[in-house]
Amino acid sequence: MSTATPIVKGRHGRSRASRRLWSVLGFLVTVVTTFLGLLAITFFIGRVVPIDPALAIVGDRAPAHVVERVREELGLNLPLWQQFFIYLKQALTGDFGTSVLTTHPVMEDIKRVFPATVELATVGTIIGAMFGVPLGVLAAVKRGSLIDQLVRLIGLIGYSVPIFWLGLLSLVFFYAKLQWVAFPGRIDIVYEYTFTPVTGFFLIDAIMQGEWEIFWDVFRHIILPASLLGYVSLAYISRMTRSFMLNELSQEYVIAARAKGLSEARIIWFHALRNAAVPLITVIALSYASLLEGSVLTETIFSWPGLGLYITNSLQNADMNAVLGGTIIIGAVFIGINVLSDILYRLLDPRTSR
């Protein structure tokens, strides 16, 4: 009996390790397949749209032999499968071609504008989480009450009302009428040519350089579009927080804690919310990713010089290299945040790694 036990334990250990290995491999295959699918979709979109990349470069009035030469240089005369493999190789190395609009490499343009989008989405997510989590907890604790109905109504409005309408309305009210916020843009023109950003995140750069006047100017520019995105994020986070908390408050450990005489506040904030925080991290991460990819309309309305506005301007000027490059970057970031949230979920909840 004493010799059989270690053998059984060893088999169980190897089987568990084997399951974890296959789980990791399957996860990696899913991520790679998703990214390749993203590249394939963007490639075929670039070939299906009625825009000739060669004509976009040389113009409609260029001679036919010039257009044909540019098509050969771009590889557009090759079979479709060869074009795809060339596109795949270039995309994996970060080469998305040259922007027709700016005449710069697309990757350089993205490096220049993407920090503005990240800063806007980050502030928006902080606002959404800071207000959405407490509201969701409050709605769950006061289930069926007027407070619960009010929180659900706030979330419903955030889901239903078009963001461009909210953006225009907020500009009319907070900028034109009350003048509480600055003119659309990222920074006042007075500081635009005197302020030298280091990281590309203006709020952080202003703090690092001790430029508090510029910091408050940047803050007055970002607060309205970030609040708008934060409200959209709040609607999703509050609804999911309410659902998670309702599930936790019905568990046996909550009943046992109440029987032991623990205060209601301690049960809610230190026990129920701590257990609900595991899936909530995934929700906040996905909300952040959605703000990164869904801020196109917000950036356009508020003239925010981020990736969304860059893609919009490129699309209006038939600059497909820039449009597809920006789409790939947003998709890659979305996949990356999904991977990170899944890893965090597995680390914080050991039950998922069994």
TrEMBL record:
Listed Pfam families: BPD_transp_1 (PF00528), BPD_transp_1_N (PF19300)
Gene Ontology MF term list: dipeptide transmembrane transporter activity
Keyword Transport set for record: yes
Membrane topology: Multi-pass membrane protein
Localization per record: Cell membrane
Source organism, top-level taxon: Bacteria
Main location: membrane
Transmembrane regions listed in the UniProt entry: 21-45, 120-141, 153-176, 218-237, 276-302, 322-345
Alphabetically ordered keywords of this record: Cell membrane, Membrane, Transmembrane, Transmembrane helix, Transport
CDD domains referenced in this protein's UniProt entry, alphabetically: TM_PBP2
Entries under PROSITE patterns matching the protein: ABC_TM1
A GO CC annotation given for this chain: plasma membrane
Domain annotation ABC transmembrane type-1: ranges: 114-341
Family: Belongs to the binding-protein-dependent transport system permease family.
The protein's name: Peptide/nickel transport system permease protein
Organism from which the protein derives: Allorhizobium borbori
